[in-house]
Amino acid sequence: MREVVAAALVQHGRLLLAQRRRPAHLAGLWELPGGKVEDGESPAAALERELREELLIDTEAGSRIGVDIVLSGALVLRAYQARLVAGTPTPVEHAALRWVDAAELQEIELVPNDRAWLPELTALLTLERPC
Fold first, then answer.
1. Distance between CA 129 and CA 87 in Å, rounded?
2. Model confidence over 117-130: pLDDT tens digits?
């Protein structure tokens, strides 16, 4: 299966979420930013590349969190902790960005796939464990 990576980027007790523009049935919903791992690329390198391309930031990928989510088309979605190294997140491919705390995370409209990670994301926000 081909891997799709998503970043759980936490800073100062807040998680960075990106608002989708497309496809139409997901437009307006919020997600962890990320993208597909390219051939010959490690998940960590893919996550760092995707965040640089989509958000114009430098990051360091950390450990995996949560369960694997099997997507259509032989894809598997996995979440990884990430740490902001440099830059200010800027929405290049998304409609907007938002930093949320644990309470806001429970109320925001996440894409269905990312909801599977709510317990782990809430724990990250509550405990602020290092990557």
1. 22
2. 999 999 999 875 44
DSSP letter for 112, please: G
Bridge partners, 15 (sequence order): 10, 100
Q: Which residues pair with 61 in a beta bridge?
A: 82
Task: For residue range 18-45, list pLDDT tens digits in order.
Answer: 999 999 999 999 999 999 999 999 999 9
Q: What is the span of the domain harbouring residue 35?
A: 2-127
- Residue keyed to tokens 């894409």: 111
Give me the number of domains the chain comprises.
Answer: 1
Is 43 in contact with 61 (CB distance < 8 Å)?
A: yes
The CATH code of the domain that includes 50 is 3.90.79.10
What distance in Å separates the CA atoms of residue 56 and residue 87, rounded to the nearest whole number? 7
Strand partners, 30: 19, 110
Concatenating the DSSP letter of every residue in 27-43 gives: TT-EE--EEEPPTT--H
Residue 112 phi/psi, 5° resolution? -55, -40
Cα separation, 59 vs 20, whole angstroms:
21
